[in-house]
């Protein structure tokens, strides 16, 4: 298979981890005789520094004409603590999601048997947990109108959803549930929000076409608690943009490290693959960042194009690395490997 | 001291737990020679059933003229699953908060040494955790304009905040930090939301007047993760309405049971005290609901009126009950006591 992959390393640890994924994907191409073509472009704070724009036109253009995007991370503390900054790295990612129509963010979360003891949660509570979160990614309060009054004394963010926006991601989530344990939990705040009530109504309606899937509802506050009390109850979680952001980062504690969690963002035409962790600026250049989340995102990329055998090989290599403790310090404190060494190892196992 | 206390038992387990708190407060009044006068009124689904209104005028009137409100819980599944219901129990609570101007919801969270093993979190991660969450309670997306288009195809919720709304709750939180470990963490999503940027800017500004307090910022997704990874890092958390709802329910896992978590909602003129758990309809009338959250809320009520010795006695009685395992099944699975028995025990220790 021939694939054009846009590589957007971004900020902080983005470049160093993405480099490992590219290495692994190249090894996959070699072994399975595919032709993967990689082209890099700038995004985030890095792009602001050079072009004054977190998503330069050339970058967007490249993503549009590529088959897939491999994304690193973005974010820089110098913008976080400057509430008056007009241009922010995050705008690059948000615009990219919107422009490419990546309406569904898919985040698998599972407990690795070898790592259950590393979680802050008790092993018996998480052992066997295996869920996937479908987060709506191009709507809601992220993209609604924002405003600040002229005197700077009030601000607002609008959260909107349409039936259509809910339906398309809901169908993906129901289908995922059908191929898994046939349980779907909608997380919302229907006792307070009008948009949540639209979600609940629409998802209920769609659910009729998926009779084999058991549909449940949880208020987001309760869900945030249940995620810790009993994560094994979840199979597929479906939720809106902001709740998905919170719940999925929270869920990362189940895996033992946020450095292990991959994600795929898909739309009608495009697909982007990124770790759920951020740019982790404190770690930049130190060789301590875990490349696994990015590499597992690359495995999702392979899956996306039907290269399931290839994806399985990548996942297997990650399992081997965990088995043999060839891990960065977030997982292997005492005798750890660098980001690059872990990448080398994974590449070598392909 | 003479106190008029409005008692709003509400729905589900609300009445049975509130009854225990009233019992305990009466014992306190007896022992310390206070005059507490209790008057009951309807709220929530119960009030809808009788008056078609989740907050009847008479209830609001009673709350206004009382010194404090002791609130049970509201919510009924028959409304949750009917997205088209026009009247909902929650509206009663939300309107009450708004009408009484209860802008700050204060939720202490701590790990009871005796119960650390009951948490889904590892004991070493939570032992010693002790924080208090200041949640803004009358603004944000809860109270902004809501709408559904005529064809029912789109819905929206507006999140707004003014500098004033942020300032008043922030001052309370900073003061709390001064009397505790001098650390305040603002939880927001300033990399995406305009309102969060206003929060960050305003809180930074206010922080200058509290030089002895160390001010930190966390994005809400990261905060949801940190709450589990390392809850001991928190002293006072300040956040907006929706994030506070999610984060504080999540934080309940630290205490070992949501049935232990109390809260106070305060404003310029009024104060309301309620457990953070909901109406727990499945447990109604079974005698298994934990009355402690409500009773500790009553202790916050005593504190609020400067009755610190009295509040300490109530808290001590709870500690004794936990020490001797006189607890409902959420805490004592094997040989548990009923809601009423726990209430009787606590009353007897006063
Ligand atoms: C960087 C930020 C804008 C982003 C989000 O909130 O969506 C991130 O937290 C994520 O989850 O991908
Ligand atoms: C019942 C509901 C409206 C309420 C809220 O979301 O504020 C509850 O969850 C709470 O936290 O007090």
UniProtKB/TrEMBL annotation, chains A, B:
**What NCBIfam families does the record tag this protein with?**
leuB
The protein's organism comes out as: Gramella jeungdoensis
Marked site: Important for catalysis: 142, 189
Q: How does it assemble?
A: Homodimer.
One molecular function GO term is: 3-isopropylmalate dehydrogenase activity
Which EC main class describes this enzyme?
Answer: oxidoreductase
Which residues take part in binding Mg(2+)? 221, 245, 249
Q: Which Pfam families match?
A: Iso_dh
| PANTHER family (alphabetical) | 3-ISOPROPYLMALATE DEHYDROGENASE
The entry's protein name is 3-isopropylmalate dehydrogenase
The opening ranks of the lineage are: Bacteria, Pseudomonadati, Bacteroidota, Flavobacteriia, Flavobacteriales
Q: Cofactor stoichiometry and binding?
A: Binds 1 Mg(2+) or Mn(2+) ion per subunit.
